[in-house]
Design brief:
With 100 residues, the protein is of the alpha+beta class. The protein is 28% helix and 49% strand. Strands 1-2-3-4 form a four-stranded antiparallel sheet.
């Protein structure tokens, strides 16, 4: 298994009742790439990649917002969905050779 531990920058959408705003944000990336379970006849299925992302901080003007602050603004489900989207994009980049 190849361990993946990195940080990446990506936009974060602060979507509130007052409107939406895109902020630059840093995400921690953790996961791994490992051999996929072989086919029943023993043939290789290549590798599988599991990646998770967690917001480290977002910048809003001159303010640095922690993960807890962002969660209080946009809600747990919205934040988790955005972290999942960053993880998916990072995994796609690993598959195509564009990351890690």
């Amino acid at each position: 298994m190849t361990r993946i531990s990195d940080t990446t920058d990506a936009p974060l959408i602060l979507d509130t009742e007052e409107g939406s705003l895109e902020c630059p944000a840093a995400f921690g990336i953790e996961g791994g790439e490992y051999p996929a379970e072989p086919y029943s006849w023993g043939g290789s299925r290549g590798t599988e990649i599991e990646i998770g992302a967690e917001l480290l901080a977002a910048r809003f003007g001159g303010l640095t917002l922690s993960r807890d602050m962002v969660e209080a603004i946009i809600g747990k489900d919205n934040l988790r969905a955005q972290e999942d989207a960053v993880a998916d994009a990072y995994a796609d980049a690993v598959r195509t050779g564009g990351a890690a």
